[in-house]
Amino acid sequence: MPRMPPTGRLMPPGGVGAGNVFAEGQEHGEEPYCHEVRRAGQVRLFSFHAVLGPETSQEEVFEACRVERLVNMAVQGCSCAVFAFGQTGSGKTYTVTGPHSEVLGGPQEPVSHGLIQRCLAHLLGQVQLRSTDGGGVTLSTSYLEIYNEQVWDLLDPQPRRPLAVRGSRTRGFHVENLSVAEFCSLDEFTKLLEEGLRNRHTSSHRQNERSSRGHAILTVHIRTTVTSADGGVATQGKLSLVDLAGSERGRDTELQEETSNINRSLLSLGKCIAALVDAKGRDRHIPYRDSKLTKLLSDSLGGTGVTLMIACVSPTAACLPETLNTLYYSSRAKRIRARPAANRDQRDKLVHSLQREVQLLSAENLLLRQRLSSLQEARRRELEAKDPGSSRPQSGECMWENSAANSTQTGGSSEPATVQRSEPRRPGSSSSCSEACLLQGPGRETDKLQTPLADASPASLPRPGEAPTALTTSLPSCHYSEPPRLPEPCCPCHWHPLLSCPTHCALQGALPPLWRDRRSNETDPRPVPLRRTKQCMGYTEWFQEAGGSSDQRARPVGPRPLMSQHRVVPSAPPLPISPAPFSSCSEGAGRKAHQRPMRTKYKEGGGLNIWMDTDHINMSDLHVWVKS
Ligand SMILES: Nc1ncnc2c1ncn2[C@@H]1O[C@H](COP(=O)(O)OP(=O)(O)OP(=O)(O)O)[C@@H](O)[C@H]1O
Fold this sequence. Notes:
With 628 residues, this protein is an alpha+beta fold. The protein is built from 18 helices and 18 strands.
């Protein structure tokens, strides 16, 4: 296909070489073609993946640029883009949509179809193939123009005001309220395309009778749904066809503002390309925010997309500086390395993130169990060393009973009870609780706890005043034979394994603190402070909260329910986190300079940020986390 206007076919002596279209494809891997630019004996050599002369047909351009491959990738869920870039009047619009006169003046000859129509014909063929295989595909399109740094909806017949470009973590940069039209056939699409082309801003100037004054971006969204039973995933692919406005040296005062806006946004695009090529590592800054064009092309340029750039040049000697600019620009763009990846459906993404969460929690569980058993082992050895034969709990003894006794003795004083002062024994434990219960019980019982919690519907959750039957029946009777009396607290934070108590726990060095529930002591006249926010709730408290109606929860007067009676007390003893490798805090609070975020845990009613204290973690812990 000839890539130059008919007026530019004459090559003046000593003028620019004959190649006009330079296809830059990030995904091409074959031997590049070279293009020579000569002037006054000087030679500049550029290499491209394809160089197409003036005689090349539209069909040949489509094939040489291998646009079919991009369409196939878009069907598989990638974000693909095709840019036409170059000087004004060099044939960008012609390449992308075909000649103006034909597109807008009646039925277009198939032979002059541009890349857009050819891509769509191929795409519809692919969709048909897929639907015969049992997969569903939904096609929709949007068409916008960036004119004078304002975004206009080309599919809106009466656009009243420019649209805003917004950025979000999930959607990236996008245009608010942009119309998206669904289509099923090439005819339907052609109508939409013609409507869009009619709404474009064009002007006449010396180099082009009908020059585009803005950048046009046509985006085809390809959403696949899974209907086959092969376990495939739903994807959301995107194919963007971009007809950039031509770079030019503005002499015409009428078009001065348009020209400077065009040049400014092309300059921003050039800066982004340079930054993408030069910068290395994750911390690189790409100035996408400099213009709306770069914002909207950010995912195609530097994200997980694949981009093909078609550089159009004019062969006249007068255009040599612009030609060289275009060739430098596109040579640099060629050096961007793409990392194509399919965009999976949000639901699929969620499933994968939850699976990862489960993995992390399993690793955490394993780590905590290991720590627990090593502490128990150390304690047994210590006791054996002190008094041989007395360290193993006798039949009928439970290590936690002493703790309960201690708690009773202190009679509700706020002095913290620690293991150093007395041997802790689980409250309410019976004679059947053995050493194995201490070492392995936590794991078994955590599993038991999790199963009914996972299956519980809100209706099946216990209300205040009711015993949590589903849970109590699944646990050893020794743990629920009487209302558990919790050991005295040392600070407001509960014994959630991931919570740290910077003051008390560090001092005590053995047990993390337990939340002292003063409400269990009806004679205590002191007001009950609200110790923790919902964001910090452990699952046992969530269980209580979920069980009661809001009315019951908000009851201001009267005897308060004995919360400890409804509390599901996990049988695992408080974990020895001293000093704590993990700590948590609600959003934005408690962050220290030496703490680095590990991950975010999703919880209902708010987030729980988990931080890793790098000063207090040992390498084996780190290994587990990094590996997971
Ligand atoms: N290969 C070609 N064969 C025949 N005519 C062409 C060719 N390329 C471009 N033209 C004609 O040259 C003129 C300018 O082309 P076009 O509008 O596509 O340029 P452009 O690069 O989009 O310019 P601008 O940036 O100003 O919009 C048009 O009339 C178009 O039909």
